[in-house]
C-alpha cells in the first residue's frame, strides 16, 4: 500500500512539473503567482516546483516588480544563445525559438491569406519575433542567427525560390537580404522539407533510432521530400534534390504550379483531396479530413489511404536511387497515423526489389508539423557553432 501511495505521489509530482513547464513554454515569462493561477496549483506547490526545476537547470528565475510589489519571474532556462526558426508556406507562418540544447523556448503560429505578399508577411514575422523574445524574457543580443524554411524549392546559389509559381509573389524575392538588413545577423534559407529533415536528423525520429541516412517525406498540401546522407541534408547542385512532389505520375494529368503536367503535387494537395469529399461532406480542410479519419470516418480514411499509395509509389523510386536506412514521414497527412502509414509502407515495399534487400523501416516524424520551423532554428544554431570553431 505504501509503495502505491508513493508511486501515485511521484506521478502527481511529475505531472505537476510537466504542467508547469508546459505553461511557461506556452505563455512565456511569468511570476509564480501567475503560474499558480494558470496551472491551478497552489502557490506553495508552485514555489517548491520552481526551486526543484531551477536546481535541475530547467528554468531560471529573477526578481521583478508587478503592481508595485516584488515578485519572482520564472522563465525557461536558456543554454548559451538562441536560434530563431521561421517557416513560411502558402497558408501559414510559424516561429520557433530554440536554445543551444535544442530546447524550444517559444512556438507561435499565424494563418496567412492566399497570395500573401512577402514584405507584409516578413513584417508580421518580425512583430511575432519581438513579442516572443519579450515573452521569454530574452534579448535580441542572445540571437545567433535566423533560419527560414520556405514552402518551395530554394536555389542554392542565391537562396531565392527556385521554381516560379509555387509560392505566388515570392519569385525572386530576397528573403535573406531583407532579414539581414533588418537584424544585422546571419540568415539561412532552405525549403520546408529540408528543414524538417534536419530536425528529424538531430532531435527527431531518425536521431532516436541512430539513423544517419534516410528519406524524409512531408505529405500535406502538396508533397515535399528531403535526402539525408551521413547526417547531412543533401541539396544537390541547385538545391532541388529530393523534390518528389514534382515527379510526374500522370503524363496527361493537370498542370502543376511548377509548369509541368501531372506532378505528384497535382494529386496530393488539399484542394484535390478535399474535393473528392465535397459532395457528401461539404467544405473541408485537410485538418478536418484527418480528424474525421482518426474518428473512423470511412470516406476520409479512403481518400487518405489512396493518397498514401501515390506518395509511396514515388518515394520507392527515390529509395531505389539512394538506398536509405529509413523513411521518416511527416506533414498533416501523417497525423492520420496508420491510415496513412500502412498503405504507404505497402506501396513502398511493393515497388522495391523483392527478396533482395530488407524492407525499409517507415517511421512517423517526431515533430510531424513543427519540424520545418524547428529545423530552421537548428540550422541557425549549427551555423553559429561552425563559425565559432573557425
From TrEMBL:
SUPFAM superfamilies: Actin-like ATPase domain, Winged helix' DNA-binding domain. Residues 18-70 form the HTH marR-type domain. One of its GO terms (molecular function) is DNA-binding transcription factor activity. Belongs to the ROK (NagC/XylR) family. This is ROK family protein. It comes from Bifidobacterium choloepi. The lineage of its organism: Bacteria, Bacillati, Actinomycetota, Actinomycetes, Bifidobacteriales.
Amino acid at each position: 500500500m505504501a509503495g502505491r501511495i508513493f508511486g501515485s505521489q511521484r506521478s502527481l509530482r511529475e505531472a505537476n512539473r510537466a504542467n508547469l513547464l508546459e505553461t511557461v513554454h506556452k505563455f512565456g515569462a511569468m511570476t509564480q503567482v501567475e503560474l499558480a493561477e494558470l496551472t491551478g496549483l497552489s502557490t506553495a506547490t508552485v514555489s517548491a516546483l520552481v526551486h526543484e526545476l531551477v536546481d535541475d537547470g530547467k528554468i531560471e528565475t529573477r526578481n521583478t516588480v508587478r503592481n508595485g510589489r516584488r515578485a519572482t519571474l520564472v522563465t525557461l532556462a536558456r543554454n548559451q544563445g538562441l536560434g530563431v526558426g521561421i517557416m513560411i508556406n502558402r497558408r501559414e507562418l510559424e516561429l520557433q525559438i530554440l536554445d543551444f540544447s535544442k530546447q524550444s523556448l517559444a512556438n507561435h503560429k499565424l494563418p496567412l491569406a492566399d497570395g500573401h505578399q512577402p514584405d507584409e508577411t516578413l513584417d508580421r514575422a518580425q512583430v511575432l519575433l519581438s513579442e516572443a523574445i519579450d515573452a521569454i524574457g530574452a534579448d535580441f543580443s542572445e540571437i545567433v542567427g535566423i533560419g527560414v524554411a520556405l514552402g518551395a524549392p530554394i536555389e542554392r546559389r542565391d537562396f531565392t525560390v527556385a521554381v516560379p509559381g509555387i509560392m505566388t509573389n515570392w519569385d525572386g524575392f530576397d528573403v535573406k537580404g531583407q532579414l539581414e538588413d533588418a537584424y544585422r545577423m546571419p540568415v539561412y534559407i532552405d525549403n520546408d522539407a529540408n528543414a524538417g529533415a534536419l530536425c528529424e536528423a538531430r532531435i527527431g525520429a531518425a536521431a532516436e533510432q541512430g539513423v544517419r541516412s534516410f528519406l524524409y517525406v512531408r505529405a500535406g498540401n502538396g508533397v515535399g521530400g528531403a535526402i539525408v546522407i551521413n547526417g547531412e541534408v543533401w541539396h544537390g547542385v541547385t538545391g532541388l534534390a529530393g523534390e518528389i512532389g514534382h515527379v510526374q505520375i500522370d503524363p496527361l494529368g493537370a498542370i502543376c504550379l511548377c509548369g509541368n503536367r501531372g506532378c505528384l503535387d497535382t494529386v496530393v494537395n488539399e484542394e484535390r483531396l478535399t474535393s473528392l469529399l465535397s459532395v457528401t461532406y461539404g467544405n473541408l480542410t485537410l485538418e478536418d479530413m484527418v480528424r474525421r479519419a482518426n474518428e473512423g470516418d470511412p470516406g476520409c480514411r479512403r481518400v487518405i489511404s489512396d493518397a498514401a499509395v501515390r506518395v509511396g509509389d514515388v518515394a520507392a523510386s527515390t529509395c531505389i536511387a539512394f538506398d536509405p536506412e529509413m523513411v521518416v514521414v511527416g506533414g498533416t497527412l501523417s497525423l492520420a497515423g496508420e491510415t496513412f502509414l500502412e498503405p504507404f509502407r505497402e506501396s513502398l515495399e511493393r515497388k522495391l526489389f523483392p527478396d533482395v534487400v530488407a524492407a525499409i523501416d517507415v517511421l512517423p516524424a517526431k515533430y510531424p508539423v513543427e519540424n520545418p520551423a524547428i529545423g530552421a532554428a537548428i540550422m541557425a544554431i549549427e551555423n553559429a557553432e561552425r563559425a565559432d570553431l573557425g
